[in-house]
Design a protein that fits this description.
By secondary structure, the chain is of the alpha/beta class. Strands 1, 2, 3, 4, 5 and 6 form a 6-stranded parallel beta sheet that branches. Helix 1 links the parallel strand 1 and strand 2.
């Protein structure tokens, strides 16, 4: 069974990216599972805190969930034409200490999707993640792209994905990424 660990890069309760992650979990192919992890409770990275206390429990728990999976799915919002600070902060913590980063990220299959209320989806945020992924030594999947634009129309008020075109694209994306991560 292929297990993907998925992280939404928003803390907002009504986040379209969290809704997209939940929809992705429902569209995993047979024999696959999407483990939805969160970044809630991860404090701002502080090297002094790391030196004195080590990684916070929320970071350690998230690391182990990523390590237990076959791949990592980042579901990223786009803030000011780039990556969201809360998700980047979580990745920064997860890469500490540097000696542990290869265990968590090295060679790990990764894919990026995202949703935005704007007309361009999350194209700039997804591009901005590429240097980070490269620096961490991950193995990105470029088999498809998914950038949900006008997300307020793609999801209903309960956060359910109602756009059938997006649902079909997401299902194809998850099938392709699960195959890539499981190989």
């Amino acid at each position: 069974m292929t297990t993907i660990t998925g992280i939404a890069g928003s803390l907002r309760a009504g986040s379209y990216n969290a809704a997209l992650l939940r929809a992705a979990a429902h569209l995993m192919p047979a024999g696959g599972r999407l483990d939805i992890a969160g970044i809630q409770g991860i404090p701002l990275y502080d090297g002094d805190v790391e030196a004195k206390q080590g990684a916070p429990a929320a970071v350690t728990a998230l690391k182990e969930r990523i390590v237990a999976g076959d791949g990592l799915l980042l579901v990223t919002p786009e803030y000011n034409h780039s990556i969201p600070g809360v998700l980047k902060n979580a990745i920064d913590w997860l890469s500490r200490p540097p000696s542990d980063s290869p265990r968590v990220f090295g060679g790990r299959p990764v894919a990026i999707i995202g949703a935005s209320t704007g007309g361009f989806g999350t194209v700039l945020a997804q591009e901005a993640w590429l240097p980070v992924i490269r620096a961490l030594g991950m193995r990105p999947w470029f088999g498809a792209r998914l950038m949900v634009s006008n997300a307020a129309k793609a999801f209903d008020e309960r956060g359910e994905l109602i756009d059938e075109r997006v649902r079909e694209q997401l299902g194809q994306f998850m099938r392709g990424f699960a195959e890539f991560a499981g190989s």
